[in-house]
Amino acid sequence: MTGPALELQQVGKAYGGLRVCADVDLGLAAGELHALIGPNGAGKTTLLDLISGLQPVDRGRILLCGRDITRRPLHKRACLGMARSFQITSLFPGFTVRQTVELAVQAGENRGLSALMQRADRDVRLREPATGIMEQVGLADRADIRAENLAHGEQRLLEMGMALASGASVLLLDEPMAGMGPGSARELSRLIKSLKGEKTILLVEHDMEAVFTLADRISVLVQGRIIATGRPEEIRANDEVQAAYLGSKCWI
Ligand SMILES: Nc1ncnc2c1ncn2[C@@H]1O[C@H](COP(=O)(O)OP(=O)(O)O)[C@@H](O)[C@H]1O
Ligand SMILES: [Mg+2]
After folding, report:
1. pLDDT tens digits along 153-163
2. Nearest residue to 131 via CA among 121, 119, 143, 122
């Protein structure tokens, strides 16, 4: 194994006078499931914005498989294998689950804009991989439903399906279980667990039971700074983490 699959070196970001991320060092090994936890407003979403390229960093470097992507725009980072879930229903109105996944498979093939402009649903080659993805995320029986008519939790599963269909190796997941019913949350938890070792995942999640069950390692972000990184049992036993964040929660 060479260097980390994803690495942040001294990353910093301020909005106006507000310093949102400071001196963030983070390294994810290939196939690692790394959870990022911390109170509301700690800067977790901002950090994902910086990694995905949605926002530029003020300082520091971001490396993907050793390659410096700090100045690469969002779409270039996506081409290099990074995926972040996004709101599908506003992007592809009227598309069924199958069409949405087929489009994502097609986009992941990186065949250029002209290929993308073709009707994905006429391309029979896309059916098989799309069926596999829908089975993987537990939406095979919803294939012909329009994406906007899915329940909220199912839409989040579809977002995961799109990220997987794109063929990305690094997944950035921002509170994927938020607002999910117990059925979809269980399905997503099972899915994320099944991806361990295969995808490199940075998971921001408030569900501490899921975090401590799923994560290989956990980093704790407080006021834009990482105050601890370690295996779940190390984070549980960390006094500073207890005082700053976990102490007030029923998470054991
Ligand atoms: N685009 C922005 N412009 C100005 N301030 C922002 C912006 N995005 C986030 N912030 C501020 O940065 C801080 C961290 O926010 P955020 O990254 O969303 O935290 P978290 O995801 O941990 O709850 C908050 O104080 C928030 O108000
Ligand atoms: Mg957030």
Report:
1. 999 999 999 99
2. 143
